[in-house]
Specification:
The complex is a heterodimer of chains A (277) and B (246). With 277 residues, chain A is mostly helical. Helices cover 79% and strands 0% of the residues of chain A. Chain A is flat. Chain B is globular. Classes of the chains: A mainly alpha (277), B alpha/beta (246). At the A-B interface, helix 10 and helix 11 of A face helix 2, strand 6, helix 3 and helix 5 of B.
Chain lengths: 277, 246
């Protein structure tokens, strides 16, 4: 909004009003508009019903121990296992993209295109059908294993691109110095290049963790038991039980409890790296 | 007994031929300085010696082993060749001490204690033992380059390659690096040095090689090549370097 009025000040003054006066009038209109919208929304809302349906302390209280001991705990488990798998596969794909064996490069590029292009939901819907393609295949850990696989497959595609950028950001001289000391290529990668690349991409990797934390809600499509339930399904189930949407709001707030500090940490790390360069 | 022998070395980048048939040798214990205008191929020549650049054709023979032979284990061969880069290329995520120990442990399979002992010896040698726990970014360019020399020396190389080791340094930091190199030469290290430091070449080198446009124009003792050059191209180059702005 302010950028609009800034632009106006840059125009030559016309119609007798000085630019500063017109800016003041424009800002007054914007405040007025905001006030009108708030007043209209406030008068349209049924405050009693909102308190009853969304801010119902009695209903919220009933979710309480399980919200953290089961739902949040499972969400964290699904996210972290998926993240670890995505990290490993993503790094492997990034290295494959630099391979001198052309088919490895093609496979890695194809993987990234496919899994970034598909909605995560579609991947979760297909995971249950995997045993049809590979008879006898059992994903270990049942839902936990399937969740890690689904989240890992999706995040690997994004992390592969992030790692690729990180590997490219490490100066060529680092590999040359390592090789000139007699290190074989892979040794130089593992000891010298990859540690620097990972450091460079810590901020985007933290953002990826935030995205994955939210995507873990898709686990509900795998069909989970009461002990395997994560935040989104937990909120939804509770709200059906008590015929009241408060639990959905509560689980939403629980997501924010994690995602906002993580996002803040990512921005801090990014700013620190920017300053270090 | 020759330490380095280069025969009919050619190197092209695409259509650009950078080295057009180089022949020369470095005897054991000799210090050979390679001088020449930028783009003459002298850095490429140096990088071909430890195969950081793959020669297009020709042979590189170090201590009787032909490095250009595809059957040679190049990683093993490189252990005997220390390399110092213009841009230092220290590992920024590791401390000075770790920079000097990591290849000893990972490549030579020395134990931690021995690697640290060798590292401290070599840091002492370049006068930076007190910086062992610093990170490269905390050091001046000259200090970083001396750590890079210590890192290479810790591998007990039989030959040291220097690729314009002082070109990226502020003028007041050049002296410390050159005096470390001078000491190294006095200790009998075989050295192949690409440099623009004419006074260093004149005082320390056993031989000076002048390169231009991918060929060796002149090769001889410094009192001949620098003080009394036989070729016009050498004379012109030296005139420009020794009397800048004239």
């Amino acid at each position: 909004m302010t950028s609009v009025s800034d632009q106006q000040t840059a125009l030559p003054s016309r119609g007798g009003l000085s630019p500063r006066k017109r800016q003041r009038i424009s800002r007054g209109i914007q405040y007025g508009l905001l006030l009108v919208i708030v007043v209209v929304l406030a008068s349209l809302a049924d405050w009693g019903a909102i308190r009853e349906s969304f801010l119902n302390a009695t209903v919220a209280g009933k979710s309480l121990p399980t919200l953290f001991t089961v739902a949040l705990r499972n969400t964290v488990i699904y996210t972290l296992t998926g993240y670890v798998l995505g990290f490993a596969v993503g790094m492997l794909l990034a290295l494959m993209r630099q391979s001198s064996v052309a088919p490895y490069r093609w496979i890695a590029a194809g993987y990234v295109e496919v899994f970034r292009g598909l909605p995560a939901l579609v991947i979760f819907l297909m995971i249950g059908s995997l045993p049809l393609a590979f008879p006898g295949l059992q994903v270990p850990g049942q839902v936990y294993g399937q969740a890690a696989l689904g989240l890992g497959l999706v995040s690997a595609a994004y992390m592969a691109e992030t790692f690729r950028a990180g590997l490219q950001a490490v100066p060529k001289g680092q590999m040359e110095a390592a090789r000139s000391l007699g290190m074989p290529y892979m040794r130089a990668m593992v000891s010298i290049v990859i540690p620097q690349a990972v450091r460079i991409v810590i901020p985007p990797l933290t953002n990826e963790l935030v995205l994955l934390f939210k995507d873990s809600s898709l686990v509900l499509f795998l069909g989970v038991t009461a002990e395997q339930v994560e935040l989104a399904k937990f909120g939804n189930d509770q709200s059906s039980t008590f015929a009241n949407p408060t639990p959905i709001l509560v689980s939403g707030l629980t997501y924010l409890l994690i995602t906002i500090p993580l996002g803040y940490a990512a921005r801090r790390l990014e700013a620190r790296q920017g300053a270090a360069r | 007994m020759s330490t380095v022998e280069i025969r009919k070395l050619h190197k092209s980048f695409g259509k650009l031929e950078v080295l057009k048939g180089i022949d020369f040798t470095v005897e054991s214990g000799q210090v050979v300085c390679v001088i020449g205008p930028s783009g003459s191929g002298k850095s490429t020549l140096l990088r071909c010696v430890n195969l950081l650049e793959q020669p297009t054709s020709g042979q590189v023979i170090v201590d009787g082993t032909e490095l250009t032979d595809p059957d040679v284990d190049i990683d093993a061969a490189r252990r005997r060749l220390g390399m110092v880069f213009q841009q230092f290329n220290l590992f920024p995520h590791l401390t000075v001490l770790r920079n000097v120990t990591i290849a000893q442990e990972r490549v030579l399979k020395r134990g931690r204690a021995e690697a640290v002992r060798v590292a401290r010896e070599n840091l002492e040698r370049v006068g930076l033992i007190e910086k062992a726990d610093s990170y490269p970014a905390q050091l001046s360019g000259g200090q970083q380059q001396r750590v890079a020399i210590a890192r290479a020396l810790a591998m007990n190389p039989s030959l040291m390659l220097f690729d314009e080791p002082t070109s990226a340094l502020d003028p007041e930091l050049v002296g410390d690096v050159l005096s470390v190199m001078r000491q190294l030469a006095e200790d009998g290290m075989t050295m192949l040095v690409v440099t623009h430091e004419m006074s260093f070449a004149r005082e320390v080198a056993d031989r000076v090689v002048f390169m231009d446009k991918g060929v060796i124009v002149e090769d001889g003792p410094p009192e001949q090549v620098i003080a009394d050059p036989q070729h016009n191209r050498t004379r012109e180059f030296l005139h420009r370097v020794l009397h800048p702005g004239v």
